[in-house]
Design goal:
Elements: H1 5-21, E1 25-31, H2 44-71, E2 76-82, H3 85-95, E3 100-104, H4 115-122, E4 126-130
Parallel strand pairs: 1-2, 3-4
Helix pairs in contact: 3-4
Length: 131
């Protein structure tokens, strides 16, 4: 779950499905490793600031998701994971023995290998892509 419009729509669909099916709902946000350009930062403070800002933003985003679920009468568990986006999502689905992944799917035109496609190809369970 991130700040993209597609992720927001996927969350709404997931909340509706979890409510209708009386299922557990977990939201995962992946905090990817530092971008390579930060390795050239003049100080380590820039690196820590980047990670702290990203962590705070994603924590607030997950809190908003919990409030949306609560408004629908659901408890939503959330997890912030540090790592590779695709690998982390797959590992989390395996760890929690998920039955369904609901992903926001971005339109990429001719680009091949975007996150949603890679997750769908490697997923241990069904995947619902939401645009």
């Amino acid at each position: 779950y991130d700040e993209s419009p597609e992720a927001g729509r996927a969350l709404q669909i997931a909340i509706g499905l979890a409510k209708a099916l009386e299922a557990d709902l977990k939201v995962v946000t992946v905090l990817e490793p530092l971008p390579s350009y930060l390795s050239y930062a003049a100080s380590a403070a820039a690196v820590f600031d980047w990670e702290d800002e990203k962590r705070a933003r994603y924590t607030a985003l997950q809190e908003q998701a919990r409030k949306q679920a609560a408004a629908a009468g659901l408890y939503l568990d959330s997890e912030l994971i540090l790592g590779d986006e695709v690998g982390s999502i797959i590992e989390c689905a395996q760890k929690h023995q998920s039955d369904l992944l609901v992903l926001g799917m971005r339109k990429h035109g001719l680009l091949i290998g975007h996150t949603g496609q890679q997750v769908a190809e490697r997923s241990p369970c069904a995947v619902l892509g939401v645009r």
